[in-house]
Amino acid sequence: MEEQIDFKEAGKKNTINISPFDRTMISKTVDQLELADYSLVLETGFKSREYLPFLFQKATGIGYYGNNISEALVTGASSAPALKINEGTAQFNQAKEDGTLDFENNFFDGCFTVNAIYFWKDPISHLKEIYRVLRLGGKLSLSFMEKKNGVELPWTQADFTFYDVNEVKRFFKEAGFVNIEAAQMTEEVTGQDGTGKIRPFINIVGKK
Hints:
The protein contains six helices and nine strands; from the N terminus they run E-E-H-E-H-E-H-E-E-H-E-H-H-E-E. By secondary structure, it is of the alpha/beta class.
C-alpha cells in the first residue's frame, strides 16, 4: 500500500504518492555520507520519520535534524513518540522558502536531501547555506531525478524544475563544494499496474 505524503515547497502544496520502494533512494543517499558515531546530520526537505531507524543504525548517537517548509509536517513529526535506537535523537524544524537555515556555521557533519532540488527557486543559494552549516570535511549527498527522466512523470507537470547532472555539479562547485562526485543509481518503484519497475536517479556528493 502506498503512503500519501503531503509536503509544501516554494510556497505551494504538492501531493505525491511515495511507495515503500522509494526508501531505496533515501537509503542509498544516506550511505554516501559514511557517518561516524555521534555525527550531526541535517536532512533538507524531509517527508517522513519512517526511515530514521535505518539512519540510526548506521552509527551510534546520531543527531538528526529534519527540515521542511510544511508546518503541518514538522508539527506531526515533532509530536510523534521519540525514537530510541542506538542513542540516536531527532529534531524537526520548519524551513524557510529562501533556503536560510537557523543553524550556526560549521554545525553538521553531513547533510542529505532527496527529491527536493526541484522546488528550490535558487539552488545555489540553498547549497551555499548547506555549505555554511557543514563542518570542514562534511559532506552533502543530494539525489534527484534527471531532467530527461523526471519530465515524463505525470505528477511532475506543475511546480517542478528539473536539471541535468552537469547543471547540478556546477551548482555544487559555485556553492564552494569540492571533491564533487556524481553517480547513476536506481530504485525500484511500484508502477500503476502494480508491478515493480526500475527507475534511475542521480546522486551527487560534495565535500566542504
